[in-house]
Amino acid sequence: MVHMGHIKIMEITIDIDDPVPLFAQLIEQIKKAVLSDKIGPGDALPSIRQLANDLELNSKTVAKAYRLLERDSVIQTKGYRGTFIHPDAKSNSTVDLNEWVMTKLNEMITTFRESGVTDSEIRIAFGNAMNNRGN
Amino acid sequence: MVHMGHIKIMEITIDIDDPVPLFAQLIEQIKKAVLSDKIGPGDALPSIRQLANDLELNSKTVAKAYRLLERDSVIQTKGYRGTFIHPDAKSNSTVDLNEWVMTKLNEMITTFRESGVTDSEIRIAFGNAMNNRGN
DNA sequence: ATATGAACCATGTGTGGTGATGGTACAATG
DNA sequence: CATTGTACCATCACCACACATGGTTCATAT
Predict the structure, then answer these.
(1) If we measure between CA atoms, which residue out of B116, B100, B106, B99 comes closest to residue A130?
(2) How far apart are CA A59 and CA A47, in angstroms?
(3) Is A18 helix (H, G, I), strand (E, B) or coil?
C-alpha cells in the first residue's frame, strides 16, 4: 500500500521571503497544528522526502526540522515505518527549549555587562567556550 | 617641559604576524611589565599618540588597550595629565576578568549541551541575547 | 524493488562581528 | 598653541557561522 491517502494533509505554507529560516517555519507550523488539534498523537507525518517534494524544499531542510521536533518529543520517528506525532506532543509543543536558553543567557550577559565586561569580550569568550568541548 | 626624558621606556614588541590581536599584545606586555616590577604605581606611561607612533600602531588600537587596562584598574588616566600605573596595578594584573567569564560560560554551555540543545541553537540564542539590551 | 530515516560527502550565499586603519573634533590644561 | 584622553564619523579585510542546496550511501523493513 502506497500511502492509502490517509496521511494527514499538512496545511503548511513556506514563505521564502520570510526572514524566519525555512526549517523554523516548518517547526512552528507543525507545533501549531499540534496545539490546535489539527493533528494528534499517533498521526503519521509525511516522509521527509515526500514533504520536501511537496513544499519544494531540500530534504535536508525538512530532516533538520524533524530532527529538532523529535528531540523535543513532539514527533517520533520509527525508522523505516515513518514519523508520527508523539503521545505528549501537545504539552511538549509549548515547552520552548530555546526560550529557556535565552533566559539563562540574558541573565548571565547582564551580569557580565554590569561587571564592566565588554560586549566584544563576552563574544570572544563565548566563541572560545563553544570551541572547548574539553573543558 | 617636553617629556624631560623620564618616561619609562616601554620594552614592548608588537608582532604583526602573531594571531593575537595587537591591542591584546599590548595589554599582555604592560601587565607583564607590572608583574615583573619593571614599572610600578605612579609611573607615567607614554601618551596614546606617542606610543602609537613609536610602535607604528593606530592610535585607536593603543587607546583600546589603555581603555581596557583602565577598566581593570591596572592603569589610571588623569585626563590631560597623562596615564599612570594604578596603585593596585600588581594585584589587578593577575585578576583575569575574562577567565571568570569563560568559566561561567563553560558551565552554562555544558548544561545546555547536556539538555540536548544544539550548538547552533546556543549560538543563535546567544546572538539574540546580545542584541536585546532591553530584555 | 521501494521506501523509511540517517549519515556522510560537498558547495554557495549572506550576515555579522572583530581588528585595524584613517580623519576630525572636543574640553581641559599647560 | 600644543597636548592630554575621548568621542564621533568612516572604511576595509578577514573569518566564522547559519541556511539551504545537491548527491551518495547505508541498514532496515515492507
Answers:
(1) B106
(2) 10
(3) coil
Dump pLDDT digits (tens) for B1-32. Answer: 433 333 344 689 999 999 999 999 999 999 99
Q: 521527509: which residue's cell?
A: A48
Residue A131 (CA) to nucleotide C12 (C1'), in angstroms, measures 25
Q: Is A102 on the interface with B (CB under 8 A)?
A: yes
Q: CA of A98: how far to CAs of A21, A70, A74, B83, in Å?
A: 15, 15, 15, 45
Quickly tell me which residue has 546580545 as its cell: B130
> Strand B83-85 to strand A75-77: parallel, antiparallel, or no bridges (unpaired)?
unpaired
Average model confidence (pLDDT) across chain A:
90
Lowest mean pLDDT among A97-111, A121-135, B4-18, B71-85: B4-18
Cβ separation of A102 and B68 shorter than 8 Å? no
Could you count the other beta carbons within 10 Å of the beta carbon of residue B101?
22
> How far is B73 from B87, CA to CA, in rounded Å?
9
Of B111, B123, B132, the CB nearest to A130: B123
**Cα torsion through A24, A26, A32, A34, rounded to 10:** -120
The set of residues with CB closer than 7 Å to nucleic strand D is A 21-24, 56-58, 60-61, 64, 79-81, 127, 130-131; B 2, 45, 47-50, 59-60, 63, 66-67, 70, 77, 79-83, 119-120, 123-124
Domains and CATH numbers, chain B: 22-94 (1.10.10.10), 97-130 (no CATH)
